[in-house]
Amino acid sequence: MSNGTPAKAKPRPREIPPVDYGELTDSIGFQLRRAQLAAFGELIETLSPLELRPAQFSVLVLIAANPDLPQSNLSAALGIQRPNFVAMLDELEARGLTKRCVSATDRRSNTLTLTPEGRRVLRRAVDLHSAFEARLFKRMGSSGREQLNEMLSKLVDPGPIA
Length: 162
Hints:
The structure is a single chain. The chain is mainly α and about 160 residues long. Helix content is about 55%, strand content about 5%. A two-stranded antiparallel ribbon has the order 1-2. Strand 1 and strand 2 form a beta hairpin. The radius of gyration is 19 Å and the shape is globular.
């Protein structure tokens, strides 16, 4: 770096020694968690040039897709606890990416909007995220994305029990 500070070295991926996972080998929850950790590690690195974490990216996407959504609805939709969500919004607002406005329909709540800078950062983040997803789905083969989304949807919203 030009200021005399050495550049941070990229952390090397942690090597996992061979382990017999026993009953966990066929555990859906365990495999989902391992997949999430692997994917999020790569996503964190992908979004790092924008200094965004995956949860922040999700917040920006939902704000853009749901203009004037109340703050409490957004945190509930993402499953982020209120104190953590408020801290995240404080950070995004301090960076000039989001803005809270008093709701036109309920003065007791805030709605959220993206600033012009927030829209610019989100456009770049969406491009990075799309490339990240393309890398993931390339590993799964041509029909992997549809199959995975269909199966995960059944876990999230199982529908009526027969």
